[in-house]
Design brief:
376 residues; alpha/beta; seven-stranded mixed beta sheet; 12 helices; 41% helix; 14% strand; binds pyridoxal-5'-phosphate
Length: 376
């Protein structure tokens, strides 16, 4: 039996999502742009899917575009917004704890002559709205930040940030990377003064390779991918109907169960916290996780890579940080100012609704074995 506790990296596909994908691959496999009956059927599924996903993102179907995932959605928003508004200014505000999809898009824009301010987090992984506001200037054309941090689970004050931006600079665009927030918190882009919002399917029980972008009605960006004019000309490419149908099925299931899921995951986090505090009095908690599905802790003296191997030998799967950083030192923990020993022993545990107390017990057993071995 496996104990998979790395759901912020990716998660298991829900049965309903897998069935929806297989159905679209095997039965309703037409191209939504085809004019015959098979195409019309696929187009109907696409329309239904867009309506369902739009409701989840807090927008209308016309404001909802399917992409190949979180990264494409974020790149589309950031490059599109920067290039569209370059005549108005060259300054962008983001944070030092963003996902690589945002940080590397910003770095590329710097090489194209844009100036980027990276707002630093507090020692507990929070981004203060006032620091974001102080970074905004007259020539700021874009603010991009995440809703929930993928390594420490902090929630960013997006409503305050959006309000401050529109007060200071109404024509600047506000993009929110909500990849780790989907089905952990309600998404309300209109309340947040948010123009663009990105989500990804594989964090919520859909397959990899599908995501979406909310783009507010009056915002128009140049398309990032051009071709056959699908997605109202904004994102060309034959629509990946199996992924779209699977994402929609996952959204429907997760939306219907969101409150129970959040309560269940919160129970698991409380149990883990209580047990870890009781067993390892030297534990250091990294960041004040505001959402329960991401927990980050350090057991100084127990190197993450070695601990991961000990846990893996017991079929327990967690990570040392973001999957994209692949063993490199976490830029998020470094930005929080944590010392090297603490960063080197950091573990990220991330829950999905399918996890159980038995998974936590298996993790605790693995950690005890690791600590006995590594802290002799
Ligand atoms: N943003 C955050 C906060 C993430 O955790 C991830 C996932 O790794 C992404 C963006 C990228 O999403 P995707 O893997 O769908 O490209």
């Amino acid at each position: 039996m496996i104990h998979y506790l790395d759901n912020a990296a990716t998660s298991r596909v829900l049965p309903a999502a897998a069935e929806a994908a297989v159905h679209m691959m095997r039965e309703e496999f037409g191209n939504p742009s085809s004019l015959h009956k098979m195409g019309i059927e696929a187009a109907r599924v696409l329309k239904d899917s867009r309506e369902a996903v739009a409701a989840v993102l807090g927008g209308t179907p016309a404001e909802t575009y399917f992409t190949s995932g979180g990264t494409e959605s974020i790149n589309t928003a950031i490059f599109g917004a920067a290039r569209k508004n370059r005549h108005a200014g060259r300054h962008i505000v983001t944070t030092a704890i963003e996902h690589a999809a945002t940080l590397n898009a910003c770095r590329r824009l710097e090489s194209e002559g844009f100036e980027v301010t990276y707002v630093q987090p507090t020692a507990d992984g929070h981004i203060l709205a006032e620091n974001m506001e102080n970074a905004m200037r007259e020539d700021t054309i874009l603010v991009s930040c995440m809703l929930v941090n993928n390594e420490v689970g902090t929630v960013l004050p997006v409503a305050e940030i959006g309000r401050a931006l529109k007060r200071k600079n109404p024509s600047a665009l506000f993009h929110v990377d909500a990849v780790q927030g989907l089905f952990r918190l309600p998404l309300t882009p209109k309340k947040w003064n948010c123009d663009l919002l990105s989500v990804s399917g594989h964090k919520i029980g859909a397959p990899k390779g599908i995501g979406a972008l909310y783009m507010k009605r009056d915002v128009r960006l140049a398309p990032y991918i051009v071709g056959g004019g699908q997605e109202s000309g904004f994102r060309s490419g034959t629509e990946p109907m199996p992924q779209i149908a699977a994402f929609t099925a996952a959204c429907r299931e997760r939306a219907a169960q969101m409150d129970e899921d959040v309560a269940h995951v919160a129970m698991l986090k409380d149990y883990l916290t209580e047990q870890v505090n009781a067993k390892f009095d030297f534990v250091q908690w990294n960041g004040q996780g505001d959402v329960p599905h991401v927990v980050n802790l350090s057991l100084p003296g127990c190197k993450s890579e070695v601990m991961l191997r000990v846990l893996e030998s017991k079929n327990v799967f967690v990570s040392a940080g973001s999957a994209c950083s692949k063993g490199k030192e976490s830029p998020v923990l470094r930005a929080m100012g944590l010392d090297k020993k603490r960063i080197d022993s950091a573990l990220r545990i991330s829950f999905a609704p399918f996890n159980t107390k038995e998974d936590v017990d298996a993790l605790l057993e693995g950690l005890e074995a690791g600590v006995r071995m590594l802290r002799r």
